[in-house]
Amino acid sequence: MVREPTFATDALKPDQVAAYLTRIELPASLAESEPSLELLSQVYLAHHYHVPKDTSVMHVPRSDWTGPSQPIVLRSALYSMPLRTAAFERIVTHHAGGYCWANNPTFAALLRGLGFRVSEVATKVFKNWANLDSANTVVKDKWGTITHIVLIVDWTGSRERYALDVGFGGGGCPIPMPLHDGATVAGLNPFEAWTMRYEPLPHDPADDPPIDVIPGWTMYRRTPVPSGSKFESFPNAPDAATPSVWAHQYHFLLASITVRDIGLYDHYSQAHPLAAFTGFFLVTRLLPGTGGARRSVMFAEHMVRDGVRQARVHTTGGNVGDSGPRDIEYVPMETGPMRAFLEREFGFIFER
Question: PANTHER family given for it (predicted)?
Fold first, then answer.
């Protein structure tokens, strides 16, 4: 009997590594390279370009994509761990994606297959990280529960450890973030950057403070805001004319979680009625060669227009900055037209 490891140590086999690299349009020969920051950065960015954050698996069982078109119902249709073989097949064979509990552990297995060391840590997400109040002067403070996972990566001889995340979706950092207080990385365009702070969980002064506090790591994103707003920002912000605020994205403690922990957190994220993933349909990825522009298709029931359920497709960010959604179109929330859209725009493969 093979004992399952307590802490996640899954590593892809050489043939799986080659298939994964081909999937993200990198040469399979990279598997022969020694671990390095250059290799890590290349593989990490390629994953953001080619593997979407994708909640469609939550709402549509694979068998429902074939046959007569039917309405897509927002629900929890997934009740098993999307890890290991299932997630690998979905990402590599079917050219689809997953949410954080599928994408990050599978990417961790790829990195281990390339010779990197990876720790998986549970993460608390700031739910309103991109939302300002009505006066556009204060970022609303609203921390969610522990429903996210981040990877901490290093290798023999590395000078730093790095935080990576291929499951955050919109606003996620596609550059490895050094794990030290004040570390800052520029994004793919002059309008965005991220910084890491070692601190207790930030909370609204109006909230009751926690009794016991252990300092952890908070990821902040430089977020453009409407002109004329006044904000404080960290002094190491990039020099750009766009007014901005540093908004926290997520916070974690540097403590590896076990395989069973991953199962517990993932089960809540995919099955609990209050879990965020059960309430929205989202497929989103970065577009290569655009300075970080993102193409997304998304739907929630509050988006119904005149009684018609249509998912909105739009492009945001990139070299033009956060000037608002553009290239907007709509896709009916039915399996027939949505399948055709996902095949055309995201390269999903449904027949294998």
Answer: ARYLAMINE N-ACETYLTRANSFERASE 4-RELATED, N-HYDROXYARYLAMINE O-ACETYLTRANSFERASE
